[in-house]
Structures are given as structure tokens and as C-alpha cells.
Amino acid sequence: MKYLFDTHAFLWSVFNPEKLSSPVRKIFHETKTSIALSVVTFWEISLKYEMGKLVLTNCLPDDLVKISDKLSFDLLELAPAQAAGFHQLPRKTHKDPFDRMIVWQAIQNKCTLVSKDGELNSYREFGLKTFW
What we know:
By secondary structure, the chain is of the alpha/beta class. It has one domain: 5'-nuclease (Rossmann fold, 3-Layer(aba) Sandwich). The protein has helices at residues 7-15, 22-27, 39-50, 64-70, 80-85, 97-108; strands spanning 2-5, 34-38, 74-76, 112-114, 129-131. Strands 3-2-1-4-5 form a five-stranded parallel β-sheet. The longest helix is centred in the middle third of the chain and has 12 residues, at 39-50. The relative contact order is 0.21.
């Protein structure tokens, strides 16, 4: 099974793992599981940190790359074709461009998106699978 963590799920796994659901915490112990993190997540974190909308405890956004490696996340690059094809994902109720790009990557890479954001379920009709 291939999972792609949403930004909040990644941040919770680093700073507040108790906020993750029990099934999500179990993913880290499954041997046949691929856990990915989009490079878009790092961009979102960096931007929100710089704007003062995100506070990180005892680290900078730059440190999160090494932390994700220690947690065994695979990094999912943003392929040019995915970036160019993003217009194909209709804008539903969810307007956040970072979340929508991560949704698009999950669909394109056939990953199950790990997210507590129930609004993202509106993208199931386009192939999104979610898990929480």
C-alpha cells in the first residue's frame, strides 16, 4: 500500500503523534507500506512559517527534511507533467492550492492520502482514496 501524508498529518507525526488516529500510527509499523511526503509539503510549511502562520518548536522548516528521512518518509517530487496537468482537477469546495496539489499528486501516483480533512473527500469521484 502506498500512502501520501497531507501536511498536517506530517506535522502531527513529528510534533504531536497523539493527534494521529490509531490506524494512521499503525502505518509506521507495517513492513509492506510505502509512506510518502510531497515536496509541496515543504514548500507549504516554509511559506506559512515565513508568513508567521506556522510556529515550529525547536526547529526551522529546513530541518524537517532530515526529520522526514528519520521517520522513513519517501519524498515525492512534483513531476513537470503533474504540475502542468493540475488544471484538470476541478476546484471543489476546497480552495487551498497546496492541499489541492497534494490531492492531485495522490491521484496521479495512485497513493492513499492520509488526511483528517474531510473536505478532501469531495475528490473521491476523481480517484482520490483517503485514510484516517
